[in-house]
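Kindly review these tokens for lecture notes.

. . .
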Amino acid sequence: MKPALPSLVLSTQQQLGLLFEVSVAPKPVRSSLTMTLLSTTVQHLQAAWDVHPYLLLSVPLALYLLISNVRSYLKLRHINGPFLAHFTYVWFVGSVARGKMLSTLQELTYKYGPVCRIGPNDLLVGDFDEVVRINGVRSPYVKSDWYTTIRFDVDGGDSVVSLMDTAEHDVRKAKLIKGYEGRGKGQDKGWMDKVVDKHLVELVRLLREKYVKQGREINWTNVMRYFSADVMVEALMGEAWGDLQTDSDIHKFFEMSDYSTPYIHTVGSWGSLRWLTSSWWFIRKAGPKVTDDHGLGKFISLVREEVSKRFRDPDSKKGDMLADWISQGLTSRECELDVILGVIAGADTVAVPMRTIFLYLITSPLVYSKLKDEITTAIKARAISEPITNQQALKLPYMQAVIHEGLRMMPISAFGFPKRVPAEGDMICGIHVPGGTDIFPNNLAIQRSKKVFGDDVDVFRPERWLIENTRGPEHRSLMVRHIEVIFGHGRWQCPGRMLAWVQLNKVFVEVLRNFDFQVGNPRDPWKLGVYSSVTVGDFWVKGVEARPE
């Protein structure tokens, strides 16, 4: 039977007495009293260990947690936010995990203003000018370690996004950007049009033959992601997977994406979890394997095989991004990692606005009618070809208004990737923010600025974008710059944004010139998840052949 725990009350009194004697004793006596104090302390710790070892171990842990929470609170105590966010990541993680960030971000903005505390070391900033400054080319801000959550390579490599060193990031991105923008080796002026057009034709064929003619409902979630994936894969490697042609998730890539998106953003909201799950040890143990028969692991193996083949014979294919990257001097590993990133970041991400804008469009009869009229008028005037070119699409003012308004209402990412305040600290919206703090851009708040977009910011109203309804060209230009922040800014701007815009500029014209649509289930049109990225599932529509005018 274990002995009873010693009376720590008496022991503590004795030790305090000894401590007082040490403090007042003459120097020759002090060392002897000090040794007596240390000896009694050790004896009591040993006795406590014999009786309750785990209790003793919990004491330093509790002290560490207490000190950490107090330090976290004090660091940003002058900035308002949800109560729990001052001490712990529980509030932030819980909010992201629920997938309800659309309403949460609106509530935070209304309650706390443009700067809000969302974690012990995290702020949400919804001021356009500050977000642009923080992400500027010459900004001293660097990536937060949130970016490490996008690591997926078991062999320890980084894509341009997960690469943490700013100088290395800039060098890598400079080699990638020409290919992304259609200015690379073998890419002529109409390269992007050609890549997108090929799959637009396939999209229209699929909708007509498999769905419209047979009177079947269309899973708009799937057809849009298959379209954008085939465009992205062909642009990167010269040949699409064929998801659109087969109307299937051939490699179960999107099955993996639907699972991993909530996981990545939830884990990325908690520093300790982020550190664990982004470690190379964890990735090797729990990450995708090239031996997997589906999902990201299968996709990585396919990319490795293609990149290896292209490095053995660089002239086998010309005109795609990979060919340009090889000519720019990227290594095989760098090409492999950035091709994988390009598909992950570009496929389903571009499909999101194709779904969200489409829902706003087909549930707004006046808007739908105006856009159809603009398309019909342009066809009669022979102002657009079939398929429409990107340059022709840019001359359709109402369609541009619909796209911009749809992106404003439902940004691709509700809040952007965080940057870290430089060591010396900074002033944000007139508030001093200490160095080392992570700053998340509040994209939703920026797109709901009443000062820029008017008082009815929660209403889908494309007319606000027509030049006659703005305060002049400069004001409309400011509105456009607000939208562009969704794709990042400065050195951190998304390199694939141009290809994304080309798809958006074309897809609505081509499907609406051929068909008319309505929502399949008006009571529950889709399943929407807003983490940082937006996910859309179970979005069904009904289509019929468009009536000739």
Q: What stands out?
A: The longest strand covers residues 540-545.
